[in-house]
Amino acid sequence: MIDRVLAEDVELFERAVRTFRGTRGAGLPYLESPGALAFVASRGHEIFGWCWGYQLIRPDGFSMLYLHQLEVVEGHRRQGIGRALLGAFMRAGAQAGATRMFLTTGETNAPARALYASMGGGLAAQGPTVNYWFRLSP
Fold it and tell me: Is residue 10 part of a domain?
């Protein structure tokens, strides 16, 4: 079952953070942040997939989605869970007014790339993506 995770579902979200990140999370602040979107695939108490990201409002008035992470537990892969999570994320964003979505993935992540291509994703027209990370100090 795929569920959108809202602030009242913080316990479910925290379990997903522990499952996929191996740490305690900041569930409520994330879930209450503007534009936060999260979905969890679960059955009973077992969590076997999640995705999360943001709806971003741009200064030109357009809205787009950013998918930060989509992950499925290894034993549950190739069963349509990733497709269902991605579809739910995209539908929720479209219903909220987003007209585009972006994400990054590893060049060698063939299963993810095949999923994204099969759901209409195209490679960035401006060429290969280069990511930079910055540490910010208070």
Answer: yes
Mean pLDDT, the chain, rounded, equals 87
- CATH assignment of the domain containing 72: 3.40.630.30
Q: Give the DSSP per-residue string, 58-81.
A: -TTS-EEEEEEEEEE-GGGTTSSH
Residue 31 falls within a domain, yes or no? yes
| Between 10 and 132, residue with greater pLDDT | 10
Q: Give the separation between CA 19 and CA 10, rounded to whole angstroms.
A: 14
What residues make up the domain containing 55? Answer: 2-118
Tell me the residue type at 101: M
| Number of C-beta neighbours around residue 131 at 10 A | 5
For 89-109, what is the mean pLDDT? 88
